[in-house]
Write a structure and sequence with these properties.
The chain has helices spanning 2-9, 38-66, 80-91, 99-103, and strands at residues 15-18, 26-29. The protein is mainly α and 112 residues long.
């Protein structure tokens, strides 16, 4: 997550990070990348965690949508409960603003 925080500050940063604790890790800034202070990186950790958690949720949601894509083919009549399920999946990230909210999401049950 430290790297993700660094990349939020400088998307082009080239750095090797040794260790996983922000308090004790060491940084090797590469290819002329300007050093970013530990404090600036620490300030971005919660945003990085939120982004990573939200991306994980989106990946799972996308797989569930892909699993039902065939219902959306032109030669298939999609049942209303499947339309509702797919819309709920598409809307699942709406309004999420914290990592805790993302982690608390429950996925809708796929209709049979």
């Amino acid at each position: 997550m430290i790297l993700e925080a660094v990349l939020l500050i400088n998307p082009d940063a080239k750095v090797c990070i040794y260790g996983s604790d922000i308090e004790t890790c060491t940084f090797n800034w590469l290819n002329g990348t300007a050093e970013i202070s530990r404090e600036d990186i620490k300030a971005k950790l919660s945003e990085a965690e939120f982004n990573m958690t939200l991306n994980k949720l989106r990946r799972k949601r996308n797989i569930l949508l892909e699993d039902t894509d065939f219902y959306a083919l032109s030669d298939v009549t999609m049942a209303d409960n499947m339309k509702t399920y797919r819309q709920a999946l598409r809307d699942i990230t709406n309004g999420l603003t914290t990592t805790a909210e993302v982690k608390a999401v429950t996925f809708p049950t796929k209709p049979t």
